[in-house]
User: Which sequence fits this backbone?
């Protein structure tokens, strides 16, 4: 069998064949930083200002990264 790049073989073990589900080990450290009320998050997402809007936006920014 000849492949599109001109090499012959079955394609098994060739460098261009990838398994999409390679397991990865990821180390994750979670630190408690602040307690944010759910109402403050809801208000921030609705565009309402509150006394802790900046803190809520900072928390959402960190979570979404």
Assistant:
């Amino acid at each position: 069998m000849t492949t599109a790049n001109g090499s012959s073989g079955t394609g098994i073990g060739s460098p261009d064949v990838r398994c999409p589900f390679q397991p990865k080990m990821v180390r994750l450290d979670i630190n408690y930083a602040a307690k944010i009320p759910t109402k403050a998050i809801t208000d921030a997402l609705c565009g309402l200002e509150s006394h802790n809007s900046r803190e809520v936006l900072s928390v959402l920014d960190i979570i979404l990264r």
Observations:
- The radius of gyration is 24 Å.
- The chain has a mean pLDDT of 76.
- Residues 32-64 form one domain.
